[in-house]
Structures are given as structure tokens and as C-alpha cells.
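Write out the 3D structure for:
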Amino acid sequence: MAESAVSFFVEKLGNFILQEASIFGEVEGQIKLLRNELEWMRLFLRDADLKRIYDERIKVWVNQIRNAIHDAEDVIDEFILNVDHRERRLNTLKFLKCLPTCVGFIDKFPFIHELDSRVKDINGMIGAIMANRSKYGLEVSSSSSATDRDRVVVHEKRPPVVEESDVVGIEDGIGELKQMLMNEETRRSVVSIVGMGGLGKTTLAKNVYNQRDVQGHFDCKAWVYVSQEFKAREILLDIAHHVMPHKKTRKLKGMEEARLGEELCKYLKGIEEEEKEKKYLVVMDDVWSNDVWSRLCSYFPEVENGSKVLITTRNKEIALRATSQAFIYELPLMNEAKSWQLFLKKALQGRTSTATHTLTSELEELGKEIVRKCKGLPLAIMVLGGMLSTKEKTKASWEKVLASIDWHLDQGPESCMGILALSYNDLPYYLKSCFLYCGIFPEDSNIDASKLIRLWLAEGFIQRRGKERLEDIAEDYLHELIDRSLIQVAERRVDGGVTSCRMHDLLRDLAVSKAKDARLFEVHENMDFTFHISIPRLVIHQNPINNDISQCLHNSKLRSLISFSGSMWVRNWGYLQQHIKLLTGNE
């Protein structure tokens, strides 16, 4: 992943040399030397990024390179910013006829001198880092050509496929859940789907929710994501927007939780305007705490018309508190036959799932051994299948994957996380930063695809590819992550393009962990914390503390601040605009 940072900065340095005609003499030589060193460094980083997983010394070496790149980028950006501020001031004075024209050129000298000194220091630091490779016997080889895994390919545009696991392995569950939701019992009841992470609870619930006869069985329906970051008011507002007409929801926006819940309850009871009781279906996906149901249950009226609430959770205790035993569906692990069927569907994308004959007997044997390592967990099967769909169908290629699975599983008891980590490590360098960056969004949130692409572009994650538009390349990146089952499509346009996407919470946990380890970004709930001053990106999910934000960010090297709290911008806009390069948020 460090390679993508170097590639972006090398391109930036080239543009800087062309644009800054005032950079001349020795300082221009130092900047060109820096660019040349980085070009050589980039050739070694592709190999090093893979080997850092297995060798702690290489991990230290790659981290030092990354820190040097961040320092160099800070120096260049600081020079550009200082010169820009000075030129604006001088242009104002020239307009007022206070200064001769030549003063602006001379006025840059102090900045050029400082730039020369700091770039010299960075060149010395990079020279020492590169020398350490030989000094400490680090086995890192250069690569002048892209491997199959890292080659930037132009993906053929193809029609959208049915998302995720289709209905492999969940057919029985669909029938059983439909029976629970549509039974003749009149009182409002709760149905729960219980199972471990990655087992397909959301896939099953969504499949049942979207069935035509289920949709027609209820007067109104709502699907809400709960997650660990439980916010009762936001959940109630989301449900209200699904079940109530727009003219009624406009007045709800400023209401407190209790009043909002009362309005929702009154509407479902049909109290307003003498309407009839609503037969409702509300799905609450990914419930982590008993507090969720105990806090919200009073707002779902116990009308005698067969209304239902469907909960998905990893914790059976939560299901038992909200549901009678008769309405709990425990999702089983996939059996061997279903696991193999799902694996083929992902590994042989674009072919039929029964096309076993397209695999040689050697590959079939290796494939079944790979599937056994997944222990019936659909998420692990899909991610590994998606990864293998990008590989050559050769014995050597699949044996290498099998050996990597064994190594990752030996690192700890969480077998699924080990397999997910393998799929991340297998990503080509140009996709790693893009995948990790998806972790900035709150758990279980729908991610607007166009916004995600704009952020990738703003952060410099998209590599140029001939004369193609960067936006088109970024869309290819998104589709490649979807094909690998690392990102899920939430909604598509009529033409098949992606409107919004989602990230499974286990994959998001992996992304946040890997991003922190690589010092790409850190995620925090609020600003009441301390963070490493070299972190370039900071993500805030809830309201910051009331203190001046400058106290939290003082002396940091923060380049991007992503906040999901609108109040931060109002109180701190002046400071943030001056000190942070990229600001983005979402209320």
C-alpha cells in the first residue's frame, strides 16, 4: 500500500517542477533527486508490502518510507501554501500601487531557501532508509514489471449479477422465515435470525424482505441498520421516513426521541385522521445490545393485525429477550455441498455454478480443500472465491493460495478474519488504499458510490491509466472490489451502475485495523482523545468535545478530517479551513 502513496507523490513532484518556474538552481536539483530516489524506491515497495506481513524488520522499513513520504509531501504543500498566501497579499498591494512588480519574485527567496534545506534533509533520510535495506540484510527485490496480481487492467463492462450469495444455502431459511412472518397469529410479534458474523443473516433477511408476497402482506415496511453505534432517535426517524407519508415526516426532524416515538406509534395505530391500524413489518438488522429492543419496543404498538418486527443478531440472548422461542431462526453453517456450490459461483464468475467440468481434477481437489478451511462460513467462501476468480486456473496458483490460508489461520483463532486478511493482502497495490478507505464510514451505513469515488480522487488513490478519465478508472476499482466480495452493492441504477454500496462489519473491522496499522487513518467516536501526530487522516463519527478543536490538532500532521457530525464544521470552520487540506462530512 505504501507504493500507491509513493506513486501519487512522484506524479505530484513532476507537476510541481513544471508549475513552479521560480524553483531553480540547487533546490530544483534536490527536488529532482528526491523524485529519482522515489522512482527507485517504488520498484522495491511492491515486493516489500507483501513481505512486511511475515517479517517485522521489513514492516519497520516500509513504515519509515511511508513517514518520509508524508514529511516530503508536507514540505511541498507548505511551500505552495506559503507562496500562495504571500502572492495574494502582494497582489493586493500591487493593485493599490504600493509595491513594484519585481518585489513578488524576490519575496519568494526565503521560502525557496527553506524548501532547499528541508528537501536536503529528506533526501538524506531516504538515503539512510534505503541503505538500511543492505545494512540489515532485508531481502526485498525490485520489480520492473507488474505481476498478474498487481497489473492494472481495464475491466470489461458486464451486466450486473445477482448480488452476494444469491440464494445458495439459504433456501430452507427463506421458506421458514416467510412462514413465521406471514402466519395467522394476530398479535404483534418479533422474529429473530441468529448466527455468527459472516453467516449470511442480512442476506437471508433481505431476500425474505424483498419477496413479492411478503411485500404485499403488510401495509407498510421499514428496513433499518442498527449496528454497535446504536442511536435510538436516528433509528426511529429512519423507520418513520419508510412508513409515513412525506408530508407527515417533515415535522419530525427536530423532535426528541420520546416525542418522535410517540408520533410513530400513533401513526401505526391509525389514531390520526381516523385511519385504520397499519399492518407493519420493521426489520432491525445487526442488533448488538439488549438495550435496543428494551428502548424501542414501546413505540411498536401491539396491534392485533399480524404486524411483525424482524431482528438479526449474533447474540441469542438478545433474541430470547425480544422473541418467543418459536420465532427464532438459528442460521446454520453451510454444509459441504452448499459451500462448494457457492465457491464455484464466485470462483467461476460468469459461468454456471454446476460447471465443475471447467476445473481439472487437481483444481477441484485443491478447491474443495480451500472450501473446507472456510468451515461453512459464507462470507469467507465468497471472499476467497472472489479472490480466486482473479487468479489463473493453474495448480501452482491455487496451491499458493492454500498455503497462504494455512499461514493466516496459524496467526490466531479467528479463522474468518485470517481468511479476510489473506484476501486483503492479495489485493493489487492500487486497490488497497481504496478498500481501506471504505472503513471511514460508520458501521452498517449505506455508502454513496459517487461520493466514495470523489473522496478516492481527492485523496490521490486513483492511478492514471493512459488517457482514461480518472472517474472511469475509479469506477473500475469499485467494480473490482465488488467482484472480490469485499464490498457489497446496496442499490443499483436502472442502467446497472452502482448507486450505493455497503461493507460487511467484519470487513470494516479489518479495514479500520489495517488502516491504523498502516497509519492511513484512525477512526474515533469524538475528539476527546489523543492520536499519533503523524496520522494523516482522522475520522470522527459523533459530536466533538466543546473545547477548541485547535487544542486537539495542535502540532499534528493531519491532512484530511472526515466528520459525520455537522456541528464540528459550524464551530471550527475558520481554523479547519486554514490547517486541513481535505475536509468532508455527512450529517
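DSSP finds 24 helices and twelve strands in the chain.
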